[in-house]
């Protein structure tokens, strides 16, 4: 593990939330999509947002990072109210976002993609540390974004935000469409990031994967939080969860 990461340890679960979302509403034009979403994420926690297609998971991430046209309510990061901030200032609170489509620049190389986003906080990983974490990326450093497999693109997208110094990571379905062996690798990466003190809010459809990485699961339906299930209770709540997810 890169040494610089080892300096930062998880804080106790009794700590104040790193991210607090309260009564969050959001719109696409006239379409009212989020209807009072609320949940907390403590430092060092991995929390998933689970829910059916169209439930509002992606929109919740977009509202948190400030790229939704219209939102209302409260989003605090380390106690700082961010609801009225532009997205670049929210990023500077130490929030990194990996969208579902990953946002890799096809015409740029892996190395160019990695160095593109501005650093938002000191203490981000160096290129060398990112390559230690994802050796595949080093092998592909000179390859264009288009030449990467889905798994390599996902690793590039995650590596890229680690470089910015963000410590709160918002990840939208990082395992979508990936082969099981790559999904396992992403799982190992997320667990390692957690032990290094990163805080992760993860959107997932695959609750079996979510179970291998998360502390808690927040279930969203029609733009509202309808349940929260601690990971330890997931198996006992499987019937209920499958009904929520329609699987
Ligand atoms: N750009 C958009 N313009 C208008 N409506 C949108 C837009 N994006 C999403 N929506 C609508 O907002 C609602 C929530 O969508 P969202 O993408 O947040 O769902 P999701 O939970 O991420 O679903 P999925 O699992 O399919 O990714 C859905 O009804 C969707 O149709
Ligand atoms: Mg989505």
The shape, in one word, is globular
Number of strands: 10
Q: What is the residue-averaged pLDDT?
A: 92
Q: How would a textbook summarize the main sheet?
A: 6 strands, mixed
Q: What small molecules accompany the polymer chains? A: adenosine-5'-triphosphate, magnesium ion
Percent of residues in helices comes to 25-40%
Using only C-alpha atoms, the radius of gyration works out to 17 Å
H-E string: HEEEHEEHEHHHHEHEHEEH
The overall number of domains is 1
Q: What would you call the structural class?
A: alpha/beta
- Beta-strand portion reads 25-35%
For the record, the CATH class is Alpha Beta
- Regions with little confidence, pLDDT below 50 for 5+ residues: 3-11
Can you give a write-up of this model?
This protein is of the alpha/beta class and 247 residues long. The protein has one domain: P-loop containing nucleotide triphosphate hydrolases (Rossmann fold, 3-Layer(aba) Sandwich), CATH 3.40.50.300. Helix content is 33%, strand content 26%. It has helices spanning 3-6, 57-65, 87-92, 110-115, 127-133, 135-139, 150-163, 180-195, 207-213, 238-245, and strands at 19-28, 31-41, 46-50, 70-77, 80-81, 95-98, 168-172, 199-204, 216-221, 224-230. The strands form two sheets. It has a six-stranded mixed sheet with strand order 6-7-8-3-9-10, with helices on both faces. The chain has a four-stranded antiparallel sheet with strand order 2-1-4-5, covered by helices on one side. A hairpin with a 2-residue loop joins strand 9 and strand 10. The longest helix has 16 residues, at 180-195. The protein is globular. Mean pLDDT is 92; it is low at 3-11. Bound molecules: adenosine-5'-triphosphate and magnesium ion (MG).
